[in-house]
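Extended Data, panel c. Modelled sequence:
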Amino acid sequence: MKQTIILIATAATLILSSCANVEKLVDRGEYDQAIHIATKKLAGKKNKKEKYVKAAEEAFAKITRRDMDRISRLKERDGLNDWKKIYTISSDMQRRQRKIEPLLPLIDMDGYHAGFKFVRAEVIIDQARNEISSRLYEVGRNYLAAAQVDDKIAARHAYENFREIGQYKANYKDTHALLKRALDLGTTHVLIKMENKSPYIFPGVLEDEILRFYRTGRQSKWKQFYMDEKQAPRIDVFSRIAIRDLQISPEQQQEVIHHFVKQIQEEHIARDENGRAMVDSSGNNIIVYVPKEIEAEVVEINQFKEAVLSMTVELFDYNSKTLLDRERFDAVGQFDNKACRIFGDRRAIRGNWLTLGAPQPFPTDEALVVLAAEQLKDRIGDVIVDFDYASL
């Protein structure tokens, strides 16, 4: 809290200091900051102070001259990045002029009339937009030509160039159509199929679980996945997910009996020879403690069943049938439950047996297989989704 107060105080001091030393900002070449402070102090004031009027005038003249010199040098270099810089500089000039314009004519309280020479920034901006758009368009067209020979990286570069044009000029030439073409050429279309090479017949829920990655938003601009070849405009890569083996253990239930004996002191109400409760002088029942041996039996039950699932993911170039990648995965769906049954006096039991529940029904084979598949779906999805298809 103390540090926060110090920071706020420091910031306030700097702001006040800047306001009081607008001339120093001009001397240091911090022209935009000087103009910002000066215009803020001058806006809406009838009696305008000389130092703010002259600071705004001097800072504006110097930064305009500096910017125009930079634009001239950049035009001589005449590169794409140079025109992007020209666009930024001229846009800043336009914003600066719009900040000054509402204050004109700018006259201080003593009658000094400040002069501002505006530049036709919109002309420079329009020229920069045209130059940038034209050059991005040509670069994009060159990349697109390379993309025609199945160069997906070139197609993606083309797409980015055409897309960037939209930041400067909307609907430039036929960029909309070229964007669609570049996107199509740069996108890899992946067909996914599942095969069962094990002796088991699997329920449909297993395939749904394994392929959940395909239905959970992992499609991307440059990768499209299909389960049905008819839905794909074309196929570039074939992804085969194969169930290689499945081992399901039998239901196992082991029982171990534990005996417990304990000596306790049991409370009884004292009674006379006639069976009546005996009381003390205050009228309370007299309590006596009688030793007693109690017994209990705990049947420890260990339940176990598991399914071991082995799968492979293979990626093939769809046209050449070349194997691109192959990964094997194993997962275990396991039911491991510790339970017990208790007979006798529970007070005799030592240990944590009382915290255990009763035996549970064994899960079905299907449920264990789905449990194993759930562990694999993300790993399988990572192989298919993260493969570098652009390098094909």
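DSSP finds ten helices and six strands in the chain. This feature is highlighted in the accompanying rendering.
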